[in-house]
Write a structure and sequence with these properties.
Chain A is α+β, with helices and mostly antiparallel strands. Chain A has a single domain, classed as SH3 type barrels (Roll), CATH 2.30.30. In chain A, strands 3-2-1-4-5 form a 5-stranded antiparallel sheet, with no helix packed on it. In chain A, a hairpin with a 2-residue loop joins strand 4 and strand 5. The termini of chain A are far apart. In chain B, a hairpin with a 5-residue loop joins strand 12 and strand 13. By secondary structure, chain B is of the alpha+beta class. The longest helix of chain B has 18 residues. Chain B has a 7-stranded mixed sheet. Chain B has a 4-stranded mixed sheet with strand order 1-6-4-5. In chain B, strands 2-3 form a two-stranded antiparallel ribbon. Chain B is 30% helix and 22% strand. Chain B is built from 9 helices and 13 strands. Chain C is globular, with a radius of gyration of 21 Å. Chain C is an alpha/beta fold. Classes of the chains: A alpha+beta, B alpha+beta, C alpha/beta. The interface between A and C is large, with 35 and 52 residues. The complex binds iron/sulfur cluster (SF4). The site of iron/sulfur cluster has 15 residues of chain C, from helix 15.
Chain lengths: 78, 348, 370
């Protein structure tokens, strides 16, 4: 349910709106739901033309790092 | 504008719009035809102003096709309904291996449609035909009341000739054959969607609309025994493969990793919940040939400007169910089924 | 496409899958329900079951908002669309869903109703501003993810005094449905579950804490999971570990987007405009108290249910359709006699075949090869 994609903010506009970029596609979206400050370069999760939240890049990196860690642990045991 | 004599006063193309009188067979219609159509399509056969065109045929089998064009919006990045109506019909002829010769063009115009836009469309058709070395030699115009049409509908019929004794047909795919696509998938569909009123996004991608007969000619010169060829228009690659699977009673296994898809097309599809395999193309072809011919065919395609990004994307397999399957880049297998209804953007 | 591709890496997937295989106890079943249709879709698209040990059973839950909408509401939406002078707008997903006697919004459109597909409720607002002499009704569906945009639109309509705009509200609530499934668990012919793969984007709004009550009361582990295949695999690994330890409670795999308390501002926007409905019917689950939202009386001017006479509809399902049992996780699509025979995506006889997230459609698209 609820198709939503992480996309990068490339400009901030009036009326709580912004332009996002996803793989080169640009679209105007609403920031009206966000409870955090947003700046250019941030990633947001977009659903039906609204940003649902700012993507926490530190957390994203941590999740990816965890995968990498599992992998290197596995390689050592080989 | 050799050989064309004007009749009566000029039509005000700049400010005018299509009126019912433009389709009623009177002087207004003649003026519109002279000024907008004849001058653009300009050729000897058309200039005779008969209700039909008479021409000699070349040696070989004749090939004929017809197609109607309706598209919203009429103008889109990389093209418009006019060049689309020329390219599409040329391509349908070219997929048999034939050389396209002549087209007819029939217009249904909506009362109130801007003559400027009409002229733009007609000129774009003329340019597309000229570039392809194909003549538009007969045509027709009708006007419908406002609200009963969507601006312009165009029907083109094409005639071509197949000189060589070859047989390219959708029922000739055999297990072991290779599948080649001539370039990036989904460009046309995404370019058009990006301009639809209810979606409006910006994507730096243009429609791939193009006439493919010259590419086809170089392919046949190198590999005369191409088994099947189709242009994956509406319904995209997935639909074409399913059609061929059914007609040849075979299955397909394609490799997701090998599919040429631009990042922006992939991005638009993620955003809208669409699958690029089902998105339309207007300047691409799928060719199926013997495994031994595949490398040669791919190489000549890649040398042609319209086949620069051609890729080998999979092969024909024996399958009583006629399933089209894909080896995903994630390592699994999935079905690539017929499209169910129109592909609609989704939220979930 | 940063933060998308990295979570679809095939080698890493294999590695996590191996780890899952190493952790499971062979003699124990792991019955995991993925609540969301988004997970169902991803599980099939990426062939996740092929990567898992046999005793992990993934059971599809009722988390496809298109599928759980009862047929009566679809009939009502079609009736609204057929009223004179009305433009009915909705998300693309809704247009093909069959109502009673296979009628759908698309079919109503073919017969002359003005039905428009929009990508966002904002587009419906724009249509209302452009067509002041017409009544614009937005057919709102979805879980908590899709609800806040509806709340924003209601506020905006009020601020602009956009009196020709109204919303036919069908928003439903996730944790209530989860609880209902668990309550049912002891009943006969109900589904036995060992854990939940929790909703991704719903949880962005309501927060991972929202499932605490259910998880504790029924002593089940819930792992909030992202929608990419690596997210899913990691969540399954976490669930296996929790089940092995016999622990329960809520854990969050999707930390890059979901916070414990959720999106407070969105919650406030919803609270301002919407309130609990005393009861609402879910396809397959029946009537559940407090499981859906309705528009508050302060916004009644924009509530289609007040502005237009709603036709009462009994909503007749196709007799042999098993959507109900499938949505409750009791049956799998192949168990339906109509599956892939009379019922296909071209001619869906039940809701589960319509949305590409529906269990039947997902099985049809990806699962038939086995
Ligand atoms: S296959 Fe069709 S009829 Fe059967 S349960 Fe699924 S949706 Fe209903």
């Amino acid at each position: 349910m609820c198709l939503a994609m992480p996309a990068r903010i490339i400009s901030l506009l009036e009326n709580e709106t912004a332009i996002i970029n996803l793989g080169g596609v640009e679209k105007q979206i609403s920031l009206a739901l966000l409870d955090t400050e947003i700046s250019i370069g941030d990633y947001v999760v977009v659903h039906v033309g609204y940003a649902l939240t700012r993507l926490d890049e530190v957390q994203a990196q941590q999740t990816l790092a965890l995968f990498a860690q599992m992998q290197s642990a596995k390689e050592e045991t080989k | 504008m050799s050989g064309i004599k004007r009749r009566g006063a000029l039509v005000d193309v700049k400010r005018g719009c299509v009126e019912l009188s433009h389709g009623s067979g009177g002087r207004a219609m003649m003026q519109l035809i002279d000024q907008v159509f004849l001058s653009a399509f300009d050729n000897e056969l058309l200039a005779q102003k008969n209700d039909q065109a008479c021409f000699n045929t070349e040696q070989g089998r004749m090939v004929m096709t017809t197609d109607s064009y309706v598209i919203s919006p009429l103008f889109f990045p990389g093209g418009d309904i006019g060049c689309l109506a020329v390219h599409g019909t040329i391509n349908d002829i070219a997929m048999s291996g034939a050389k396209p010769l002549y087209l007819s063009a029939s217009f249904i115009l909506e009362e109130g449609f801007s003559l400027m836009d009409l002229q733009k469309i007609v000129q774009s058709m003329a340019a597309a035909a000229r570039d392809a070395n194909v003549k538009i030699i007969t045509g027709d115009t009708k006007v419908v009341e406002r609200g009963k049409g969507d601006g312009v509908f165009i029907t083109t019929t094409g005639i071509g000739v197949l000189a060589q004794p070859i047989n390219i047909s959708a029922d000739r795919a055999k297990p072991g054959d290779k599948v080649i696509i001539s370039g990036y998938l989904g460009d046309h569909g995404v370019a058009v969607m990006s301009k639809r009123e209810n979606l409006s996004f910006f994507a730096p991608v243009e429609s791939d609309t193009a006439a493919l007969h010259e590419l086809v000619a170089t392919m046949i010169a190198a590999v005369p025994d191409i088994h099947c060829m189709r242009d994956p228009t509406r319904g995209g690659l997935a639909s074409v493969l399913n059609e061929i699977a059914e007609q040849s009673q075979v299955g397909f296994m394609i490799e997701e990793n090998t599919l040429p898809i631009r990042e922006v097309v992939a991005g638009a599809c993620e955003l809208l919940g669409l699958d690029p395999l089902y998105v339309a193309n207007e300047g691409k072809l799928v060719a199926i040939c013997k495994s031994a011919d595949a490398e040669i065919l791919l190489a000549v395609m890649q040398k042609h400007p319209l086949g620069k990004h051609a890729a080998l994307i999979g092969e024909v397999v024996a399958d009583a169910n006629c399933f089209v399957q894909m080896q995903t880049s994630f390592g699994g297998k999935r079905m690539v089924d017929w499209l169910a209804g129109e592909q609609l953007p989704r939220i979930c | 496409m940063k933060y998308i591709k990295a979570f679809r890496d095939a080698n890493l997937a294999k590695m996590i899958a191996d780890k899952i295989a190493a952790e499971v106890n062979d003699n124990q079943p792991y019955r995991l329900m993925e609540f969301c249709g988004g997970h169902t879709h991803a599980i099939h698209r990426y062939g996740i079951p092929d990567l898992l040990p046999k005793n992990i059973d993934l059971i599809h839950g009722p988390g496809c908002p298109v599928c759980v909408l009862p047929i009566a509401r679809i009939d009502q939406a079609i009736a609204l669309a057929e009223l004179p002078n009305v433009i009915l707008c909705s998300y693309g997903d809704m247009l093909r869903v069959p109502g009673t006697q296979q009628k759908s919004l698309l079919k109503a459109k073919a017969k002359g109703a003005d039905v428009r597909m929009v990508y966002s409720i904002n587009d419906a607002l724009a249509i209302a501003q452009k067509n002041l002499s017409k009544e614009i009704i937005f057919f709102a569906i979805g879980f908590e993810t899709t609800t806040p945009p509806t709340a924003v639109a209601l506020l905006k309509a009020k601020e602009l005094c956009l009196n020709n705009f109204s919303v036919f509200c069908n928003h439903v609530l996730t944790p209530v449905a989860m609880e209902c499934l668990l309550q049912d668990e002891n009943a006969e012919a109900s589904v036995q579950l060992d854990g939940f793969i929790g909703p991704a984007h719903v949880s962005i709004i309501i927060g991972s804490d929202a499932y605490k009550k259910v998880a504790e009361r029924y002593q089940k582990p819930v792992v909030i999971s992202g929608f990419e295949p690596l997210d899913l695999l990691q969540s399954i690994l976490m669930l296996v570990q929790l089940i092995n330890e016999k622990s329960y409670g809520v854990e969050n795999q999707y930390t890059r987007a979901v916070k414990p308390q959720g999106n407070i501002k969105s919650q406030a926007l919803m609270a301002e405009t919407l309130e609990l409905r005393s009861t609402f019917e879910w396809r397959g689950l029946g009537f559940m108290p407090n499981s859906a939202l309705q528009i508050k009386s302060a916004y009644r001017d924009f509530d289609a249910e007040y502005r237009f006479p709603l036709q009462m509809s009994q909503g007749q399902e196709h007799k042999a359709c098993e959507c109900g049992a499938i949505l409750r996780g009791v049956k799998k699509p192949q168990a339906c006699k109509l599956f892939a025979k009379a019922c296909t995506p071209e001619n869906p006889l039940g809701a589960c075949m319509v949305s590409s997230e529906g269990a039947c459609a997902a099985y049809y698209a990806y699962g038939r090869i086995k």
